[in-house]
Amino acid sequence: MILHEFMDFEVLRVIWWALLGVLLIGFALADGFDLGVGTLLPFVARTDLERRVAINTVGPVWEGNQVWFILGGGAIFAAWPPLYAVSFSGFYMAMFLILAALILRPVGFKYRSKRESETWRSAWDWALFVGGFVPALVFGVAVGNVLQGVPFRLTEDLMPIYEGGFFGLLNPYALLAGLVSVSMLVMHGAAWLVFKSEGLVADRAREFGVYAAFATIATYALAGLWLAAGVDAYAFTGAVAPDGPSNPLMSEVARGGSWMAAYAERPWIVVAPVMAFLGAALAVLGFRARREGWTMLASKLSITGIIASVGLTMFPFILPSSIDPNSSLTVWDSSSSHLTLFVMLVSAVIFMPLILLYTAWVYKVLWGKVTARDVMDSSDSVY
Amino acid sequence: MELDIVELSRLQFALTAMFHFLFVPLTLGLSVIVAIMETVYVMTNRPIWRQMTKFWATLFGINFVLGVATGITMEFQFGMNWAYYSHYVGDIFGAPLAIEGLMAFFLEATFVGLMFFGWDKLSKVTHCVVTWLVAIGSNFSALWILIANGWMQNPVGAVFNPVTMRMEMTSFFDVMFNHVAQAKFVHTVSAGYVTASVFVLGVSAWYLIKGRHEALAKRSIAVAASFGLASALSVVVLGDESGYSATHSQKMKLAAVEGMWDTYKAPAPFKLVGIPDQEARETKYAVQIPVAMGLLGTRSLTEEMRGINDLVIEAEARILNGILAYDALMDIRAAKGAATPEQIARFEDHSADLGYALLLKRYVDDPREATTEQIAMAAEDTIPGVLPLFWAFRVMVGLGFMFIGVMLFFFIRANFYGMRFPRWSLWAAVFAIPTPWIAAEAGWFVAEFGRQPWTVDGVLPTALSVSHLSVTQVALTLAGFVTFYSVLFIIEMGLMLKYIRKGPFMDVAETEAWNRRHNERLSGRTSQQPAE
């Protein structure tokens, strides 16, 4: 195949960096409200019927939503193999927690209402809470650690060696990032519940949504200030070839300076944090004004801004190493080969639009509120 | 045996993969069977078929969700426990996994929700299309997973890059149309169809024994027996194709499966039974069918099939050649990006056997310093455990032929004896329910255990593929998975049995009434529109 030679390696790398962001944002927008609803479940819905209403708002779509996560993992594996190898083995116990939570969740959705027993149902309700809250928190904690650099190094054979433990991940800055993530996903889940349900569930969700949107603004602002003042950035010290071979050890990196330098270098990226704040503020207004559709959009805007701001601030760094900065993974030295990136781009160009199209159709078919009446009418077939 | 990180990681992968594979075959087959039933419903408009569709779809759903949940583990385990593998072959191996997500998994997961929640929201035909999309999605899923797995068995279309220290793709076409992957795909999918057919047959037989839901059970048997007969025939024929494709790409696996220590004069005999002895390097008490193996393996009477002993000698030669490749690789690395064309040419001359030199890493840090003894040991390592392979294969094949018999019997009874089944045959069908799972797991075992000591045949040894983790970490997650999965399995079986005992949730009269209401609602919706 020679076709791939028509696209520069460098360009493909930037495209796949952007696509990685698109997939993460896609995951947060689609699966994010499921996680938020899971986290809110014990609080916004008290009776069994209320809980079934809340669960059935995400019932038909969580499976598709979760694929964003699977696809994200697959795309990291295919397009950024060193990132996949380092992060998944490095964040070992954290990944296990996420896995356990994400396995609990599908099973909880599917099996909860298949038995009448109260203990059975309440056990699954807590499983759904854990399945929503734990991933939401851990994803944020992971991002908080990535921003600070992660204690790994690569041997000359490019074998990743991770030298921190699980509890090292739970440092104050990372926990703050975890709170940002929980706040924004709870905001998103509340926006979804307000959009898809009515009555008490929606009223309670509205209240939580306002708090969560305020919390998103506060924690995100705090995390930003802290990033500017107290977190070291990483930078190349020597020349680096954007189309060079994918061997991180061939470039030199030093720790120091501030990530905020990126905003002086590329002032346009300020658009991301602006979206983050603006979206959350609009969400507050939307919740209060009972404009459900707009609230949902505002929440999406905020989440997109928050996730994009991390990537844009760190570019071209993807996963800096705190103990051996030269091992840091960047856009220029940790991608797949030229051919693989091209093949993957072709498949993404073919299938992503199709996916968006049929996902939109499914949401259209399922349009409208889920009511207590719906759940009672088809008690046997819904969750 | 002391459990080191490699053994623990293998154990974890084997357990989680085999657990995942309890749900996959049924998903593959039952999705198609449900889609067939719904198609009959759409074409005949008879409510009993709708009831059947919904009943089997409920069981499908209980099974499907665990397939999805345990599949997440598979996708992430490569990075968690097999980091060096992920780095070393991610450039090739990651692509089919990601495409699986894009092309197949998104499709099935997005529509499966609508399949369960869309009955009231979609027209009959649209709902049927949705069900088919779920079935197609799951089957495409299997295709891409097996392309990835096929590459581990027969790594085509890739070459080692000494600068990035990994395998890189040279031809996506070769990876996709890898003959091993294609043979595996059709074999695995057929096995899934057989599994679901035996399942539907067994559950229906139980209803007939109990005298419940006879209309549903008899029709289900008719579908399962015809679909199952075709699938059982194809699983055996295509399994033979899968074996044939191993003749050229994985000689050692084939020789081990056959307990074939020495190279026979062509055509080789087939050992029906026997007890392979790895120490003595012979297969005791063998009962042989002359000529059969040569015929099956090479489809000729003259082509020779190498025995294990000769393959070990061959491996030793490849290790020596691999050491030269390793030496050249170290030269290139020392040159720090300024390697001379001679150095690169020297590497390329020997690079096909680099993986064989890496086998020595178990014994010595620098393969160039290996002693003759260590080289002999590494060559010996290329023999997988012969006894378990020999028998797992025979269990699988034996069951395969049994499925043909069972399906043929029920097919004939259903079509030519007016759906009258002797009671003993119904009980036999009930007790046959677990057998396709045994066959599927045995087949999986033959394919993956037979690949040892490699993760990627001839390219990367298993011992080198793992992550840099502590034994405690892996033991902890292993214990976690075992506990967690056991609980899930008990819950799943409990629900399965509950819903089988409960039977279809509407009787035919109720379904008809529902059907009428549904039609009224749909026509009401369309007639309202012009008025607005």
Low-confidence stretches of chain B: 526-532
The major sheet of chain B is characterized as: 2 strands, antiparallel
Helix amount of chain B: over 70%
Whole-number total of structural domains of chain B: 2
- Please state the overall shape of chain B, judged from the principal axes of the Cα atoms: globular
Strand content of chain B: 5-15%
Q: Separation of termini of chain A?
A: 49 Å
The whole-angstrom Rg of chain B is 26 Å
Task: Name the strands of the widest sheet of chain A in spatial order.
Answer: 1-2
Number of helices of chain B: 19
SSE pattern of chain A:
HHHHHHEEHHEEHHHEEHH
Q: Which band does the percent of strand residues of chain A land in?
A: 5-15%
Question: What are the low-pLDDT stretches of chain A, counting only 5+ consecutive residues below 50?
Answer: none
Q: What is the overall shape of chain A?
A: globular
**How many β strands of chain A by DSSP?**
6
Biggest interface pair, counts: A-B, 72 and 77 residues
What labels would you give this structure?
heterodimer; A: two-stranded antiparallel sheet; 13 helices; B: 532 residues; mainly alpha; two-stranded antiparallel sheet; 6 strands; disordered C terminus
Polypeptide structure, described:
The complex is a heterodimer of chains A (383) and B (532). Chain A has a domain at 8-222 and 334-377. Chain A has a two-stranded antiparallel ribbon with strand order 1-2. By secondary structure, chain A is mostly helical. Chain A has 13 helices and six strands. Chain B has helices at residues 5-44, 47-81, 83-117, 124-153, 172-176, 179-210, 214-249, 251-257, 292-298, 308-334, 341-350, 354-358, 372-381, 386-416, 423-431, 435-449, 462-465, 471-502, 508-531; strands spanning 158-161, 166-169, 270-277, 282-289, 454-456, 460-461. In chain B, strands 1-2 form a two-stranded antiparallel ribbon. Chain B has a two-stranded antiparallel ribbon with strand order 3-4. In chain B, a hairpin with a 4-residue loop joins strand 1 and strand 2. In chain B, helix 2 (47-81) packs antiparallel against helix 18 (471-502) and helix 6 packs antiparallel against helix 16. Chain B starts with a helix and ends with a helix. The chains are: A mainly alpha (383), B mainly alpha (532). Chains A and B meet through helix 3, helix 4, helix 5, strand 2 and helix 12 of A and helix 2, helix 3, strand 2 and helix 18 of B.
